[in-house]
Amino acid sequence: MIIWSVETSCDETALAVVEASGGLKNPKFAVLESVVSSQIAVHRPFGGVVPNLAKREHLKNLPLLLEKLSAKGLDIRKADLLAVTIGPGLEPALWTGVNFAKELAKKYKKPLLGVNHLEGHIFSFLLSSGARRAKPSEVFPAAALLVSGGHTLILKMKSLTEWKRMGETRDDAVGEAYDKVARLLDFPYPGGPEIEKAAGAGSASVFFPRPMLDQKNYDFSFSGLKTAVLYYLRDHPAKTEKERNDVAASFQEAAVEVLVKKTVRAAADAEAKSIILSGGVAANKRLRAELKKAARKEKIKFFAPEMRFNTDNAAMIGVAAYIAKLRGKKRRISAQANLII
Ligand code: KG4
Ligand code: ZN
Q1: What pLDDT, on a 0 to 100 scale, did the predictor assign at position 167?
Q2: 192 CA from centroid of ligand 1 (Å)
C-alpha cells in the first residue's frame, strides 16, 4: 500500500511517500521519499515557535514540497491512502496541513485518514534497520519512551495496537527543558541540538538535582531541573564558553540519568523485551547511547528510529496511518469533519 502523508503540527512542514506491507503481524515500511522544510530561521529571532508565522510558512511550503515530490518522479495518483496529522499541535499550523490534505483527497479522489502526532512518533521506531530485522515477538511487550518538545511519557506496549501510559511529565517536556536551558545560556532556538553540542565540549562538573528519580512511579518533572539551572546561573553567571559548556553538560547528565533510570525500571516492571525511544529528543546521541547501554545490560533489545525520523517528519505519519488503518480506526476526515485533537 502506498501512503502519502502530511505533517504540519509545529514548525516543520513535511510530506512523505511510504510503501507499507505485511499487515499488523509483521509490518514493514519503505520510505520512498521524505521531505521536510524547516522553519528554524523564521522562528529563531523570536526564541520559539510563533503559531501564525508557522501557519504562513506551511501555506507557502506545502505546494513547494508537493512539486518536489513530483519532480522526483512520484505520482500521487498511485497513492492508496492519504494521511495527515490532526493533533496534538499548534492549531493554526495543523489546519493548514488538514486543509491541504483534504484538497488533495478531493482532487485525486483518495481516502484521507487523520493521524495522531504522538502515534507517529511512537511508531517511528519501525523506520530503523533494527526494527526491520526484528520479529514482533522480539519487540513486545515493550517500554516506550517518547521525548519531544511537547511530551515526555512512558508507555507499556503489549503490541502495536495495545498500550497504556505508565507515566509522564508533570510539568515541562524534556525537549522544552532543553530549549529553556539553552535560552538561559544564550544559545539560539531550538536549544536541544545546541545544548548537545555544548555538552560534548564540556564536563558535567555541576551537580543538578534528578527530580523524582527516587519516586516509585514513572512520572517526570523537568521544570524543577530547569529552575535549578536558573538559580545556579544567578549565583554563578557563566561568563566563558567553558562555563557554559559545563552547565550544558551538567544539565544534560541530570536529564539523561532520570530518563534512562526510570525507563529501565518501567521496562523491568512491564517485563519488556525491548525499550523503544522516539521523539525529537531521541536525536540526542548521549540519551540514545545511554539508553542502549542500559538495555544491553538488562539483556533486552533497543529500538530507535533512523536519525532523520526523530524530529518531526511525515514518514512517521505514514507509518502510523498504516497501523491505524489496519486497526480500523475511524479517523477518516470527511469534507465537513472537524479537527480531532
Ligand atoms: O518531536 P519534535 O521534533 O517536535 C515535537 O513534537 O515537539 O521535538 C522537538 C524537540 C525540541 O524541544 C528540540 O530542542 C528537541 O526536540 N531536540 C533535541 C535534539 N534535537 C531536537 N533535544 C536534545 N538533543 C537533540 N539533539
Ligand atoms: Zn513531534
Answers
A1: 97
A2: 6
The pLDDT value given to residue 314: 98
CATH number for the domain running over 139-304:
3.30.420.40
Query: Separation of 191 CA from ligand 1 center, angstroms?
Result: 8
Which position has the grid cell 521524505?
A: 34
Q: Atom 2 (ligand 1): residue with closest C-alpha?
A: 280
Neighbours of ion ligand 2 (CB under 5 A): 148, 312
Beta bridge partners of 164: 156
Q: Under CATH, to which class is 2-125+309-327 assigned?
A: alpha beta
For residues 91 and 51, the answer to whether their CB atoms sit within 8 Å is: yes
Q: Report CA(137)–ligand 1 centroid distance (Å).
A: 30
Residues in the chain predicted with pLDDT less than 70, given as ranges, are: 329-341
Measured CA to CA, the distance from residue 27 to residue 123 in angstroms comes to: 11
Residues lining ligand 1, CB < 6 A?
10, 148-150, 175-176, 178-179, 190-193, 196, 279-281, 283-284, 311-312
Residue 72 CA to ligand 2 centre (angstroms): 26
**Structural contact between residues 317 and 21, judged by C-beta atoms closer than 8 angstroms:** no
Asked if 225 contacts 179 with a C-beta cutoff of 8 angstroms, the reply is no
DSSP string computed for 246-290 = HHHHHHHHHHHHHHHHHHHHHHHHTT-SEEEEESGGGG-HHHHHH
pTM for the whole structure: 0.95
Span 193-249, pLDDT tens digits = 999 999 999 999 999 999 999 999 999 999 999 999 999 999 999 999 999 999 999
CATH 3.30.420.40 domain range(s) in the chain: 2-125+309-327, 139-304
Distance of alpha carbon 208 from alpha carbon 211, whole angstroms: 9
Residue in the block written with cell 526564541: 47
**Ligand lying closest to the C-alpha of residue 54:** 1
Strands 152-157 and 142-147: antiparallel
Mutate to test the pocket of ligand 1, among 36, 281, 316 (most ligand atoms within 8 A of CB): 281
Helices (H) and strands (E) in the chain, counts: 12, 10
